[in-house]
Design a protein that fits this description.
The protein is of the alpha/beta class and 246 residues long. The chain has ten helices and ten strands. The strands form two sheets. It has a six-stranded mixed sheet, sandwiched between helices. α3 runs parallel beside α6. The protein is globular, with a radius of gyration of 18 Å. The site of adenosine-5'-triphosphate has 12 residues, from β2 and α1.
Length: 246
């Protein structure tokens, strides 16, 4: 039997300002407990796709004009971003946005979406167990953290909402390769240990295809390829345009 899906996009179209068609019929499935990458160049529509799922399009005068959006078998199109967070959708925006005047500890507490203090503390300790470096820096204003540490904090904030699906927008952006490898290994570990499903948006196809099982390639708002990570790595077009060629 086919694996249950945590997320299913069927033919999604998004327009900004009623006119500009940014994605033109995107279909993507994320299996429960799976890790899937959405790859593509600048401006292809990756961020727009994630915003259609988290509902953050509303902040940019964007709207889903057509298509179906299902999370755990439920149509979420009419839900607010807050309601989607409550259902278990976490979206780490591009550019590691954290509160720079707050410490990592305060940032995590501010991001918590659970009721009980006990659960909040347990979630925070779990974030620190994944990111020991954040624990070391927990009392420093976050503006003083390195880019890699801020990315870890942005992921940690998303984990404070106890998500079932973690969506990451270009977590590797501007980071040294060893840090990208470290953060991606931690994402893999969270996926394995917590059963958290992951949708990873990346321009860095090399790093992304190391950790996901499947990938989608988006070009000019359309999915043009969908395959296993192994097959994508061997595909000549992917090699030429996204893996630096050989
Ligand atoms: P990047 O990695 O550079 O963010 P992307 O693949 O995530 O690229 P999107 O940011 O989703 O691409 O952009 C897809 C298309 O939608 C582009 O043509 C872009 O110009 C357009 N677009 C994105 N945001 C808006 C907006 N707020 N208003 C109008 N058009 C937008």
């Amino acid at each position: 039997p086919a694996a249950a899906k945590v997320l299913s996009l069927n033919n999604i179209e998004v327009v900004y300002d009623h006119v500009s068609l940014a994605i033109k019929g995107v279909s993507i499935d994320v299996p429960e407990g799976g890790m899937v990458a959405l790859l593509g160049a600048n401006g292809a529509g990756k961020s727009t796709t994630l915003k259609s799922i988290s509902g953050l399009l509303v902040a940019e005068r964007g709207e889903v004009r057509r298509g179906e959006l299902q999370f755990l078998g439920r149509n979420i199109s009419a839900l607010s971003p807050q309601e989607r967070v409550k259902l278990g959708i976490a979206h780490v925006l591009e550019g590691r946005r954290v509160f720079e005047h707050l410490t990592p500890d305060e940032n995590l507490i501010a991001a918590s979406a659970v009721r009980s203090r006990h659960d909040m503390h347990r979630n925070k300790e779990r974030v620190y167990s994944y990111f020991p470096r954040l624990h070391e820096r927990r009392a420093v204003a976050s503006g003083y953290l390195s880019g890699g540490e801020q990315q870890m904090l942005a992921i940690g904030r998303a984990l404070m909402t106890q998500p079932k699906l973690l969506m990451l927008d270009e977590p590797s952006l501007g980071l040294a390769p060893f840090l990208v490898a470290e953060i991606f290994q931690i994402i893999s570990r969270i996926n394995r240990e917590d059963g958290l499903s992951v949708l990873l948006v990346e321009q860095n196809a090399v790093a992304a295809l190391e950790i996901v099982s499947h990938g989608y390639l988006i070009e000019s708002g359309r999915i043009v390829m969908h395959d296993t990570a192994e097959a994508l790595k061997r595909n000549p077009d992917i090699q030429e345009f996204y893996l630096g060629g050989t």
